[in-house]
Amino acid sequence: MKTLLMMTTALVAIATGANAQTIDMTKFPAPATGEFGPIAAAPDGLAMSDMVGPNDTPHTIGEGFPDPVGAFRFECDPAHVLADDPVVYPGKPGRSHGHQFYGNQSINAYSTYESVRATGLTTCTSEGNRSGYWMPEVISGNRVIRPRNVVVYYKREPKGSPYCDPNAPEYAGICVSIPNGLRFIFGYDFLSGTVTTGGINFSCNINDGQGNPQRPGTAYSPSMAKAAKGCKVGDFIDFKIGAPECWNGKDLDTFNHRSHTTDRVKKANGYEACPATHPYYMPHFLLQAFYVVDENLNTTDDWVPGQKTWYLSSDIMFGMTPKEPGTTFHADYLEAWNPLIKKAWTDNCIDKHYSCVAGDLGNGYGLKLKVRQFDNPRYVPIPAGVTGPFINNKLHPGH
Asked: What does the domain layout of the chain look like in residue ranges?
């Protein structure tokens, strides 16, 4: 962890200078060796004062009761659209179906953990989170429709709870933070034709009259077509996808970009736990993307093949039979948090059972918020690329 220790020393030096009054480095202790997995933290070249500021009105809500988990929440604006995927097709620009990216704005086919840690502004609050999140584009007519905004929240039971105690019946696994540089795909899996890790849902949220999504709306459904019925132009379709929560403890990626992570499974006593093959229980995140309904979304009838409506760039691809719109919903993740900030929200929000919102770190500081851009512009052209999952007539294992 030599890199991490050098970075931490630099931050302390900054904190004793001009920013000594505003940044208390005791609130951001260095992670222990190996705490965040096998990759040492790549430096990001940023001072702590660039990433966080004093939080005069903490957004912690009691101890999170009755929810048994601790949570850390923030919002993102949509970033770029690109037919790249640095997880599935590294170094091959234009090889993927189109993706809508969130977070790090530098991500392309050549991105690595080290590159995104060192470069790129972010659409998710502070540069302390240079992680990348991406999902298939939503196609409306002959254009990509971008989401109004995205909500991301990480959750896990606190380390002091029975869920992290191997002697308790509720035990779910060895409670750890997310390892540096972890990357994976979750949601629909083309190889099996099912959702193998994580979970997907859609719902309709009505417009509150101020341009914001508001419940009540339709109940969550695994079908976008069913969720859209009864929605009106100007309302919102909520795309919701949950990431896996269990890690095998050694791999940051695998051949199919899924096998090193998995979901909890039900035990004989009724509680859920990470399987023995993936014993580490890490904070998992939910991603919710809110899309404003337009006239191209069918909101009246059950979908039939060939019907005009929204669809995902992965629903209709070369070499495969078109799927029901929304069926192939999946997402990619490339972890690239500043490790000091990741440790802060893990220790102070997750493990203290707080419900931290708006980037609050639970220690008197919060991520510096950016001016919101929302879906500006709302529509963009479909990016050029090879939109198919097949290589040499074989399905790519990343799908």
From this structure: 2-388
Gap between the Cα atoms of 74 and 342, Å rounded: 13
Q: What is the DSSP string of 216-276?
A: --PPPBS-HHHHHTT--TTSEEEEEEE---EE-SS-S--TTSSTTEE--EE-TTS-EE--T
Q: Structure tokens of 18?
A: 């001009």
201 SS3 class: strand
Distance CA(346)–CA(73), nearest Å, equals 12
CA 138/CA 144 separation, integer angstroms: 6
Which pair of structure tokens corresponds to residue 3? 């890199």
What does the alpha-carbon distance between residue 385 and residue 84 come to, in Å, rounded to a whole number?
8
DSSP, res 146: P
What is the β-pairing status of strands 174-175 and 280-281?
A: parallel
Residue 216 Cα to chain centre, angstroms: 25
d(CA 329, CA 186): 9
Q: How many residues does the chain have?
A: 399
- Residue found under tokens 């995927």: 85
Q: What is the pLDDT along the chain (399 residues), one digit of tens a residue?
A: 333 333 333 333 334 444 444 689 999 998 887 787 767 778 888 899 989 988 866 655 655 556 789 999 999 999 999 999 999 999 999 888 999 999 999 999 999 999 999 998 899 988 899 999 999 999 999 999 999 999 999 999 999 999 999 999 999 999 999 999 999 999 998 888 888 888 899 999 988 777 777 765 667 888 899 999 989 999 999 999 999 999 999 999 999 999 999 999 999 999 999 999 999 999 999 999 999 999 999 998 888 887 889 999 999 887 788 889 999 999 999 999 999 999 999 999 999 998 898 899 999 999 987 767 778 899 999 887 766 555 555 555 666
Measured in degrees and rounded to the nearest 5, phi and psi for residue 53 equal -145, 165
pTM: predicted TM-score of the whole model, two decimal places: 0.89
Expressed in angstroms, the distance from the first to the final Cα of the chain is 34
Task: For residue 200, give both structure tokens.
Answer: 């997907």
